[in-house]
User: What shape does this take?
Amino acid sequence: MTAEPVVLANSVPKPGEVDSDNEDRVAFCSGRIAMSDGASRTARAEVWAELLVESFAQDASDPLGPARLELLRAEWLDRVASPDLPWYAQSKIADGGAATYLSVEIDTGRARFAAVGIGDTCLLHVRGGDILLAGPLTRPDQFGRSPALVSTRVGDAGHTGDRWECTTTYKNGDALIIATDAAAAFLLGAPTDALQELIHTDVLNDSEEYSDWVNFARSQGGMASDDTTICVVRL
Assistant: This one.
């Protein structure tokens, strides 16, 4: 049996926006971690992202299971729909919301973890500064404007063909980094020092330090100016 993992996470919105504008969501509980990036062009994507991560981390229920997914879709609609909304808002809600999704379940008894991903929110398994495994995307040049998404539309199974899964072992001292697209693309091409700083310092514990880290990466390292969420799991 390995030690219980230590989980640290933080998030900042796009430049010029406030925390309430941030459409990224992350949740963790009892070795279950989930992250989701709501697609800005869709309706109330932040609500959908929150439902996805809470289903996995807090409720210990797979949000991608067909029956559970339809329940979550109904809950999303119940939360966001209202007859008092203007016609254009009702029209957008009818088109639905969408989000990426990445979950990790850690089994300390067997020193294993299992991950599932849809889209460009990514997992990096790091050991001694080296990336042993990454997914669903593995290189910065794979990121684009149209990632795979989980939709709120009833019966939509378009995400199933883009499902990424992995199950592998880990060693004490390894780390998992989970990040939404801007940070994931940056970290997949970043030097070892950037990974080690996230893993071995408390930058994620301090919102001001984390904001400074992101701003530096945006200005000096070319990280895209998007909502930026990172979770580090020290194994």
Summary: The chain is about 30% helix and 30% strand. The domain at 6-13+22-234 is CATH 3.60.40.10 (Phosphatase 2c; domain 1). The chain has one domain: 6-13+22-234.
